Amino acid sequence: MSDFYFIIGASRPKGAGVKNLPVSAHMFFEGVDYSHIHLEFPPGLFSNETVYFEARNSQVNFVNEKTFLEKTEVVRSYAVYCNEAEIGDIIDFCWRYCGINYGYTQLAGAVISQIFQYANFDVKNLFADGMQTEICSSVAARILNLCGVDTIGDIESKTPKEVVQLLESQGFERLP
């Protein structure tokens, strides 16, 4: 077992339903009960409190636990263990990309890629921009890469469902 860990979680906004039709439609078509991927860092890595790192709304950012949980329902969580060098790389990554804009066009490209995948065509994200902007599932996939996990395929087309499938297929510990 490694010395350090963080959590990758699958979540949805509180009140997902008619109030949040695009999110509810996404979950329905994907056949899942979550629409978002976030990272949770336990006390001691970034501060004395639990800190969340996510790409949501207008940018990639850190969020304190109280604010995150007021707006978000965590559906499932997975522990990711890593060594000291990897956690250092992850912390550097988070600081380096904190504040970049949310990838609305990247999200549109990921949706287009998914449509082509349903038709058995492998199409990369047409709007990939090399981390000029970012979406939640791509952030998680990039961080998994820093832990030595092969995320298989186009990172900028990853969906929350694909990140969860990757975690489950790689045997990451699902937390209660």
Describe the protein's architecture and organization.
The chain has one domain (4-166): endopeptidase fold (from Nostoc punctiforme) (Alpha-Beta Complex), CATH 3.90.1720. It contains six helices and eight strands; from the N terminus they run E-H-E-E-E-H-E-H-E-H-E-H-H-E. It has helices at 21-30, 65-71, 84-97, 104-118, 136-146, 160-169; strands spanning 4-13, 36-41, 51-56, 59-64, 72-82, 101-102, 133-134, 173-175. It is globular, with a radius of gyration of 15 Å. 35% of the residues are buried.
Short recap of the structure:
This protein has 6 helices and 8 strands.
Strand content: 25-35%
Please summarize the sheet with the most strands: 6 strands, antiparallel
Whole-number average pLDDT?
A: 87
- Can you tell me the CATH architecture? Alpha-Beta Complex
Q: Report the strand count.
A: 8
Please give the share of residues in helix.
Answer: 25-40%
In the predicted model, the low-confidence regions spanning at least 5 consecutive residues are none
SSE order in H/E notation? EHEEEHEHEHEHHE
The CATH topology is given as endopeptidase fold (from Nostoc punctiforme)
Key structural traits:
single chain, 176 residues, alpha+beta, endopeptidase fold (from Nostoc punctiforme), 6 helices, 8 strands, globular
